[in-house]
Design brief:
Layout: H1 3-13, H2 16-40, H3 48-68, H4 87-107, H5 113-145, H6 153-173, H7 177-209
Helix pairs in contact: 1-5, 2-3, 2-4, 3-6, 4-5, 4-7, 5-6, 5-7
This protein binds fe (ii) ion (FE2) (2 copies).
């Protein structure tokens, strides 16, 4: 368990306004991930695993948005910046990860276009699934502590399945898959820390002002 992150989750769920924007932020990021998977689908060869993965990530975006209604029926109707925590970092996190993983593949001499595309997709998705496991687990612990009406248990179960699928697909992709995976996770770790710093700043601002600290620009 990541105690720093758990503490942040505890601070977020304690304030309805922050909690709604947190849910909306996660929904935005799930939606970005879902669109990325859908974009990567081969129109002819998309298989059941890929279709399931895209469908479940879209469901996560929808489900998190629905959960907002359990706190405040009128909060965060869209992904406009004022309804999102750390809007710039939240919107660009996945794209930045994608760019850096592509750079890693180029620097490692992966030139075949099909292998490059598959490698980028697998490594980015794998790193995100490792993160999702940790993030939703801590968030659910914070929700349990206050007996919240919000829960993310169904998302946790599906993310565990995704992580396993990504591990299997990576193992087929390259015999050096563990080295690749560690490098992708190291990149993600840095970007995640930057994102979390921005989220923590907004949470601290909210706590000190006792009012929403809206950041209105992406
Ligand atoms: Fe997800
Ligand atoms: Fe996932």
């Amino acid at each position: 368990m990541n105690t720093d992150f758990l503490t942040l989750c505890q601070q977020i769920v304690a304030h309805p306004d922050l909690h709604c924007r947190w849910l909306n932020t996660l929904s935005l990021m799930e939606n970005t991930g879902a669109r990325k998977i859908a974009h990567n689908e081969d129109p002819i060869h998309a298989d059941l695993t890929m279709l399931k993965h895209a469908a479940e990530e879209f469901r996560h975006a929808y489900y998190l948005k629905k959960m907002i209604g359990r706190i405040d029926a009128f909060a965060c109707p869209t992904y406009e910046a004022s309804f999102v925590l750390a809007p710039h970092a939240s919107k660009h996190y996945l794209h930045r990860l994608d760019v850096e993983v592509c750079r890693l593949l180029i620097q490692s001499g992966v030139t075949d276009p099909a292998r490059f595309k598959a490698g980028a997709y697998l490594l980015v998705t794998y790193a995100i699934e490792v993160r999702a496991d940790e993030l939703y687990g801590n968030y659910q612990n914070a929700l349990d502590e206050i007996n919240s009406k919000v829960n993310v248990k169904s998302i946790i179960a599906e993310e565990e399945g995704h992580l396993q699928e990504m591990q299997e697909m990576l193992a087929h992709f390259d015999p050096m898959h563990q080295v690749w995976a560690e490098k992708a996770c190291a990149i993600e770790e840095r970007l995640h820390a930057e994102w979390l710093t921005e989220i923590a700043k907004e949470v601290a601002q909210f706590a000190s002002l006792g009012a929403p600290a809206f950041n209105t620009t992406f």
